[in-house]
Amino acid sequence: MTEVFRLSGAGNDFLALVEPDAPPTAAQIRAWCRRGVSLGADGVFLLSREAAPATVRMDYFNSDGGAADLCINGTRCAAQLAFQLGWSERQVRVRTGAGTLLARQLSAGEIELEVPPPDGPPRAVELVLASGPITTLGGWALQVGVPHAVIPWDADLADCPVAALGPPVRRHAEFPEGANADFVRWPTPHEMEIRTFERGVEAETLACGTGVLAAVAVGVAQGHLTLPVKARTKGGFLLTVGGEVDVASGVVRGWSLAGDARVLSCAETFDGAEAELPDPPERR
């Protein structure tokens, strides 16, 4: 049996192992994360204490079993779990594959994370799609821990065919490593709506922290947004993106992202949670 914590951050749900004797295999992660037939989650992270005071390490894995350098909502949940375990109070540093990030507990259910800026300015792209209801999409490419394609959607975002457009954008040749596909709408200078098809999950998720940051960075660069910004996720939660814009250069410094992050439960799994499973029909 394995002790597993379940957490949610603005709709992203995660399974967490605390200082396990050995890391799970990719096959175990894939089995645990399959919805309907196992525990179900967007990803798994491992949490352990570091020698430095008020510092923890998080190793993150997508639901396909592959490691990822950064998951912002996962990092915020890791911080909340560290507080729940009594490893730190109100503030903790979380060491990730993308560097060490400072997290603060705003309330019992809210965590703010100081996040790294995007790796350079957004790059305009025109994506010709081999499949899907639309053949060409204009947008921007940028890296926020992981690659992102930010696609503006001027109509009602609820009508955006994310399930059809997400896969060809995610696998487009413009992104050799693949990319998260973020479909966004900027209704006012301080508001944003977003839906994301996530690489590694291979489906639309209820939230994506790095996607929110990527889309806000594009919105600020294109003059659509002014910080702070309230970003509404597919799950209905609001995530607040803050930062300070250098008037002379227009560069945003001191990025932060705050919002929902909760520890939901702790349970022990049985062998059935790790049973070898057939591939779903869409992956055969």
Short description:
15% of the residues lie in helices and 43% in strands.
List keywords for this structure.
single chain, 284 residues, Diaminopimelate Epimerase, Chain A, domain 1, 18 strands, globular
Task: Compile the SSE list and pairings.
Layout (H helix, E strand, L loop, with lengths): L1 E8 L2 E7 L7 H8 L9 E7 L5 E8 L4 E2 L3 H13 L6 E6 L2 E9 L2 E5 L8 E6 L7 E9 L1 E7 L9 H9 L9 E9 L2 E8 L4 E3 L3 H13 L7 E4 L5 E8 L6 E9 L1 E8 L15
Parallel strand pairs: 2-3, 4-6, 11-12, 13-15
Antiparallel strand pairs: 1-2, 1-18, 3-4, 4-5, 6-7, 7-8, 8-17, 9-10, 10-11, 12-13, 13-14, 15-16, 16-17
**Could you tell me how far the N terminus lies from the C terminus, measured between alpha carbons in angstroms?**
30 Å
Number of helices: 4
Mean pLDDT: 93
Low-pLDDT stretches: none
CATH superfamily of the largest domain: Diaminopimelate Epimerase, Chain A, domain 1
CATH architecture verdict of the largest domain: Roll
SSE string: EEHEEEHEEEEEEHEEEHEEEE
Major beta sheet summary: 18 strands, mixed
- Please identify the structural class as seen in this structure: alpha+beta
Shape: globular
Oligomer: single chain
Query: Helix content range of the residues, please?
Result: 10-25%
Beta-strand percentage?
A: 35-45%
